[in-house]
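Quick check before the chapter quiz. The format below is the same one you will see on the exam, so make sure you can read both the input and the output lines.
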Amino acid sequence: MKHKYIFIISILLLLNACQSIRDGLAGNKNNNSDEFLIEKKNPLETPPDFGLLPEPKKETEIIDQAEKIDEDIEILLKKEGGIKNTSEIDKSTEDFILKKIKKN
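Here is the expected output.
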């Protein structure tokens, strides 16, 4: 009988020491008001040069760029493997794919 009272008193002291259990039993809510705080933002603004349009490129500049790209591609193909025509490229890719299929 004496052990029963000691056990009950020790449980009550333990529960009394726990703040979260005390708040839960008392029905207290968290006083955290930052959870739903909404910060105001500045309104959107248009950039100062928003109305200016870029100048279109001349046709000669576009053609020059395309030719330069073509020349760069040819130089890369010559350096990489010396492939001279597209049929060799097609055959090598086809062989590569067939080898992968046969492995699986």
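If your answer matched, good. The mean pLDDT is 76.
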